[in-house]
Every structure is written in structure tokens, then in C-alpha cells.
Amino acid sequence: MKRKSLNKVLALALASVMALSVAACGNNDGGSSSTPAGNSSEESSSDAAGSGEESSSEETGGEESSEAAGGEQASGERQTITFSVIDVNAGSNNVGEYAEQILNQIKDYTNVNLELTWVANDALADKNALYLTNPSTMPHIITWGGTVTANVVEAAKQGAFVDLNDYVWDSTKYPNLSGMSKEVAANLTVDGKLIAIPRTRVVGRNGLSYRTDWFEKLKDEYNLTEPNTPEAVKEMLKAFTYGDPDGNGVDDTIGMEMTKHTGPFDIIQTWFGCGNGWAEVDGQLVPVWMQPEYMEAVDYIKSLYDEGLMPADWHTRPTDGWSDGCKKGENGVFIDVLDSGKRIWKYFEDEATFTPSVVNPEEPAHMTLYGAVNGRTLATAGYAGYFTLSATTLDTPEKIEAALTLLDKLNDPEMLVLTQYGLEGINYDIVDGLLVDTDNTEEGKALAENYLGLNQLLPFLPTTEETTARVERQIDKYDQAQNEAYEAALPYAVMNPAMSYLVNSPTYGSEGASLDEAASAARTQYICGAIDKAAFEAELQRIRDNGYDTIIAEVNEQFKANQ
Fold this sequence. Notes:
The chain is of the alpha/beta class and 563 residues long.
């Protein structure tokens, strides 16, 4: 098909799906959901991602050269690549005295004339939908949030994106991209075409974090034990709710932090043997709400609600202040990504927000990061957000290779340092061979705006763990605890076995999101007592009758073909 005709076909086809939104993810992690479109938490992707070793050749001022930036330069004409990037910093991205210098170092190192367009996180879905309606003006690289959704699948089927299978597995040209997980790649494959580069995330990232000092204060009185079973977690929640953990004599604490984001329920369900959205039962893939263990898990969650162990109005609480309850001492348990627990702990110890321990007021409060309960936790999708390459505007092999070279080289140690830590002597120092971040002062925080937001360019490939190890930096106690919790959770993280098949299920693409939403809404109604169990089960059957049985059939046709 001629390119002009392709643009017209794409514009017509994609106008019909423009209203479908993408789960914006500068802050979110895919995978803690029953659907491939799900995401979870408030976390900053810079916290979730990692870093690499220092670049001793970076200068603190003056003009740049490609040699100063590090890395051998490709020969030939330098291509211009446009890149639509998530803005999670309210416009304060790559600004300040050294901002141009840092961006120029990226351009020189990757041999690309890079043009960035920052898109506000909450506007990402709408902006990307607009891009799809006019393929001839799409940015070369577009950042998407969450995991693949129906409008992206439809666009892919119309030929909107470069089939990356033709390029990225070349380990000579793309040593970093070519190392991506084949399982993650399968989740970004539509009709056999790899349509995107993932932004990888730690798989064993979900779990339970709790106030260590509250636990220590109440453990003898309430016979609390390590929260390694659902029953032990519930006893801890009871103590945190009714045991006056802060010692002020006022009934002002509730055990578990919760908002209308129901990702924590998906994590809790795994404790009872439920899958991650889907599970294999008797040789067939089914949604978790068809598993025998599902109702037991939901009844447990309902008991937490009925006994007042989570906020009564959780289903209407916004997610933007999700961790505020723990930070203010209203809650003692936070169930979601473990790095959110880390950030709460850091908040307790910050000079401006110092929170004394209830055991020893001379010391700060503390959070314990605890991964698997009952030997299970919810795995992430292995990525949170992704980059597509436009098949219409990247209209030559040279442009495609320039875009991929950019994404590949951004995973090199020099770029991992520059985009996440800035410039040596300004944003960080090298002490005993290790990078020491100096942005914790007020002056340092202002200087950090020079590179702020540039971490949103990073795919973190081959894996988040490997790119983290590439930065030889001083690890503080917070990151040490986080990394240990990730490692401990990984062997018990339950993956979604149907994710790659759902992407290629026509019925799921057209109806899956609304049906999944209906199932989640029914769960919420049952937990809150708006409907009884019979009505809940009847609603799940209605969802099956209204299209989910077809989805199950389409998924299992692919599943059987791959066995």
C-alpha cells in the first residue's frame, strides 16, 4: 500500500477508537490487574528503574564534544528523531543552567538530533489518541502508559507501528534491546508483529509494607506473628485498628490503607491461590473469578471491610494521595508496590517530616517491606509503559535504525548516569569509586531540574535489574531494603499466563475492558455489601454470557496452539 493511502486508512480506522484511552503510566506499574491494560500505583518511574555506573568524562561546564559524552559515534548523516515523552514533573523537565549541556551530551552519544515533546501524564491518553488519527504527523517515538490496550492493538493491525522483529534482535547493532525478555516481547506482539519497546520493571515488585514500630509495640499484647499468612495479616490489621498503636488514647487509626484503586485486592487474592488476572485450571486458561479459590479470597477481603480494618469510604477515595494515610499515622499497612513502602519510610526520616517511632521517640518510624504472603504475590507484567515507533514518519531504514540506536544506547552506563543523576561535581560526586547523589540538599534539588524527567526516555533493557547494576553507586539503606524485598518476592511472583493471548483476542480488544470493569465493580459491590453473594455470582455469569466465554475460547485456541 502506498504511504499516502496508508495514512488515510489509518486515520479513518483510528478515528473510531479515539475515545478508547490508554492507561497513563509515568507513575504506574503494569501487572497488578486482572487485565493486560491494568496498572498500579503512584510510584515514580525513576524510583522503580535503576541506574548505571558513573561517566568520569562528563564535564561540569562549557561546550560539549562527542568524545566528552563517551561512546564511539556512528558514521553517516545524523538523523532527527522526535520523541513524545511523559511529563511527570509539571513541566520542570530538563531545565536550568546545565539542561542544554546534558541534552547535547545525549545527542552526541547517540548520534541523533533529538527533539522532545513533553506530554502531561494525565493528558497522555488523549494526546496519543490524537496522534493516531493523523499518522502522517505522528512523532517518531511515542511513549505509552500501562500495558497494551484496544486502541493500540487496532492501530497496530492497521500498520501504524514498525514491526520491530525485523530489527531489534540484531545483537551487534542493538546489544541492549536484543536482550529483552521474549515473554515480555510476546505481550507486545500483535498478529506476530512486535509493536513496541517495553519499559521494563522488576517482576517481584508487589507486596505488603507495614509500620515496624507499631508491630513491635503491639506484638506481645496481641500475639502478633510474622505476617506470612492471611490470618497473621488480619490479626496485625486488627491490632493496628483497635490497639491504639500511636498511644494517644484516641480511636483514630485504621489498619490498612486503601483507595478506589483495587490493585491491592488483586495482590491479596494471590495469597489464596488465585492467579494474576488469569490462571490455568485443568489445562484451560480462565479469568481468576472462575477459580474455586476466588470467592474465598473475596470473602476474606470483605471481612476486612466488615470489621473496619480498612477505610469505610475506600471505594470513593482518590489515588493521588494514596500513601498519605500511612504518612500521617492513620494507617499502618500499605499493600501495593514495595517501593511505595520505601518512600513512606523515607518520609518518616526526612528532617522536614520527621515521624518519631512509637517504641523510641528518639528514633524515626520505620516501614518493613514484605513481599510474599502464604508463599505468593502478584507479579508485574515485567514492564510498565512502552515505546512505539511510527511506521509512517519513520519512512526510511536509516530513520528507524537511528530511533532504535537512540533507545539502545540510552541503556549504556554513561546515559543511565546522565539521565538519572546528572553531571559529576554538580549533581553527584564520586567517592571511593562510587557515585554519591548530592541532590538531597535544597540547592541540589534545584540543580536536579537540569536532568529531571530524562529518565522517562529509558527502556531499562535488557532488564531493570541489569541496568541498575550498571551504575556503581552508593546504595542507601532504603534502596538496600527495597532490593532485598524485590529479590525475596521474585520466586513467589505469580505471572499472568494469558496476557500475550489477550492482546490478540478480537473480542477482548472490543469488549474486554468493559467486561473486566464490570467484574471489578461487582467485586466492589459485594465487598461493600451493596449486593449479596448470589447477586455477585449472577453478575459474573452475566459477564460470561455477554462475551467473556468468547474471550476464553479465543484465548485458549491460541494457548493450545502454542503447546
